[in-house]
Amino acid sequence: PIGVYLFGLLNDRAGRRISYFCCLATLLLGSFLTAISPDFWTWATSRAIVGLTIPAVYQIPFILALELVGPAYRSFVTVMTCTFYTFSLMILAGITAIIDDWRALSLYTSMPFLLYFLYVLVMPESPRWLLAQGRLEEALKVLEVMARVNGKEFPNWFRNKLHHSMASRKLRGDVDEPRRRVGAFDLCRTPNMRLKTILITLNWFANETVYLGLSYYGPELGDNAHLSFFFSSLVEIPSYILCWIIMDRWGRRWPLCLLMILSGISCSVTVMLPEESKLDTLILFLLSKSMISASFLIIYPFAGELYPTQVRGVGIGTSSYIGGLGLIGIPFINYLGKDNLRLPLVIMGAVSVVGGITGLRLPETLHHCLPQTLEEGEKFGKDWNWRECFRCIPIRPTVASMGSYENLSRKDKREDDVELNVARGKLTEKSPLERRRAQSSSMRRLVRQSSTMDTQKTHDGAMQ
Questions:
Q1: What is the tens place of the pLDDT at every residue in 290-321?
Q2: Comparing C-alpha atoms, which of 111, 106, 113, 109 is closest to residue 36?
Q3: Distance (Å, rounded) from C-alpha 127 to C-alpha 133?
Q4: Which GO terms describe its cellular component (predicted)?
Q5: Most confidently modeled range among 161-170, 312-321, 380-389
């Protein structure tokens, strides 16, 4: 938990790219020290170093991927990330079944990470983070490369838009505001961000506790621990495919809460089964593991879309840090299964249900652009009302944000769509929608004036 918060701070202050390679180097250092540890305390210290990077080494590239794609591809990125993670768990079950020496196991599971340093040649910095830091030219270079790789032409109207936004910030005197040091306290300075942070953290705590608790509990249900772990990981794949379908139809909030509640119910009903019903217990366990895995998949993009770019790294790091505190109690909860095999399932089921219910208060993020600043994050979801709890299919926003590079493929954009006017030391802009509204308003005034001129009284008082 400590490492994920520290790397979350580094993620927002030094950038996604630097923080990822620092995290990767720390992980490799701890892993190699583990393999050569001569005594217990050296081994424990090396494992603590490795623990600093978990799950930051997974979260940092996920945040970067989330910021590099548009709304239509966020679900795909999330599903692919979690699918490869699950395949690695299945491979790990086979490796541990073959290799029983802990030194060799440490080397075999850490040496592949050396290949990830090749990413330094191709991995870009997040354009969103660069814009939040006021580094416009660097962000433009990254966006131009992205457009070229995708066979697109970077539109001049958007280049003008970014230059205008940066000039406006300079005139307001807040160009250096994003560069100030942000931390966990910034998440709680305003009421809406504070409430969202608390609810995201509660959901993260419930998800992480139940997901990893069930993962560690799985080997207890079978005679072969490796095979049990393999199948408990295998059941996650169908749930990810199901998530891919429903996340783009029903959004994030309802699937997250529904899956957590159903997972908790599946765990809790095992208490009503007779002692000899081990097969029924196994089936309910696998159903619960499948559903909590799907909800754990959703919490990552959901939190990333709720936290603004300015504090996205520290926000996810803080939620994951507090969620990781629940892992401390997992060994003790699973130990209760020595006397009663179903008691750990009932406890984790209750935690999952409570977490699912609290998540209904969060605003939906489907079809919305990522908030960039703390101010945008505070405004997002501020108009929430209780009717939102019962809306399964989210409403699509009618107008996309002009400040986002996520919708550059629209064909109705022209270079003259953004007008830049310099007047009285201020820059003003008109978006395409504002221009159409102004034209419609002018036309209505013209019609009223024409009607007034055409309808006049003659000298005898008759209307003409």
A1: 999 999 999 999 999 999 988 998 899 889 88
A2: 106
A3: 10
A4: membrane
A5: 312-321
pTM of the model: 0.76
* Angstrom distance (rounded) from CA 292 to CA 201: 16
Q: pLDDT exceeding 90 applies to what percent of the chain?
A: 41
CB 160 within 8 A of CB 151: no
- Which of the four CATH numbers 1.20.1250.20, 2.60.120.430, 3.30.420.40, 2.130.10.10 does domain 185-392 have? 1.20.1250.20
Cβ–Cβ < 8 Å for 238, 290: yes
* Number of residues that this document lists for the chain: 464
Q: How confident is the model at residue 194, as a pLDDT?
A: 94
Residue 325 confidence (pLDDT): 84
CATH no. for 1-134: 1.20.1250.20
Cβ-based neighbours of 70, under 8 Å, separated by 6 or more: 406, 407
Rounded to 5°, the CA angle 247-77-8 comes to 105
Q: Which of 126, 145, 136, 139 is nearest to 163 (CA)?
A: 136
Model pLDDT for residues 108-136, shown as the tens digit of each residue? 999 999 999 999 999 999 998 998 888 88
3-state secondary structure of 182: coil
CA-wise closest residue to 211 among 331, 130, 150, 296: 296
Q: Which two tokens stand for residue 312?
A: 């996205």
Backbone angles phi, psi at 461, to 5 degrees: 90, 0
CATH 1.20.1250.20: which residues of the chain? 1-134, 185-392
Q: How far apart are the C-alpha atoms of 126 and 363, rounded to whole Å?
A: 25
